[in-house]
Amino acid sequence: MPLKPMLAAGVGLLVAGLIAFALVNVPPGDAQAEYGDVVINNYSDDAGMRPVVFPHWFHRIRFRCNVCHAELGFEFKAGGNDINMLKIFDGEFCGACHNSEIAWGVENCVLCHTGMPGMRTRVHHSTSDRLVAPPSAKGQ
């Protein structure tokens, strides 16, 4: 194999490894949602758990869109899925991969439930976060 492609592949693996190391070694409670992360808080606050901060781009590095959005049934909209832990335990949604074989198992709650209490379900720093509602006609 020529040197340039070999080096590029090695750098890609190194970057992926560093990202994985950083995600696993962040102490619970210190994680913040980054650009493009999906905050999932459909039931977490009510259950006394921190919201899930789903690192979308970290997963996108490894998988094509259709793996999650077609094969696993995730909607293309934050809050568009009725995700709960029972479904995940049954192998639906996140549980299809987070089964202790493909990725860590669901017993590692603090690896996913890292958001701050009260964070709403959304795509963090998405365009909709930056939109400002126009002044109402009543006030004019």
Please, could you describe this protein's structure?
It is a single chain. The protein is mostly helical and 140 residues long. The protein has a single domain, classed as Alpha-Beta Complex (Cytochrome C3). Helix content is 32%, strand content 6%. The protein has five helices and three strands; from the N terminus they run αββαααβα. It has a three-stranded antiparallel beta sheet, with no helix packed on it. The protein starts with a helix and ends in a 10-residue tail after the last helix.
Mean pLDDT: 79
Radius of gyration: 18 Å
The geometry reads as globular
Helix content: 25-40%
CATH architecture: Alpha-Beta Complex
CATH homologous group name: Cytochrome C3
Can you count the beta strands?
A: 3
What name is given to the CATH topology?
Cytochrome C3
User: Strand share of the residues?
Assistant: 5-15%
Strand order of the largest sheet: 2-1-3
Question: Top keywords for this entry?
Answer:
Cytochrome C3; 5 helices; 140 residues; mainly alpha
Q: Nutshell version of this structure?
A:
The protein has 140 residues and is mostly helical.
Topology record:
Elements lengths: L2 H22 L13 E3 L11 E3 L1 H7 L2 H7 L13 H5 L32 E2 L3 H4 L10
Antiparallel strand pairs: 1-2, 1-3
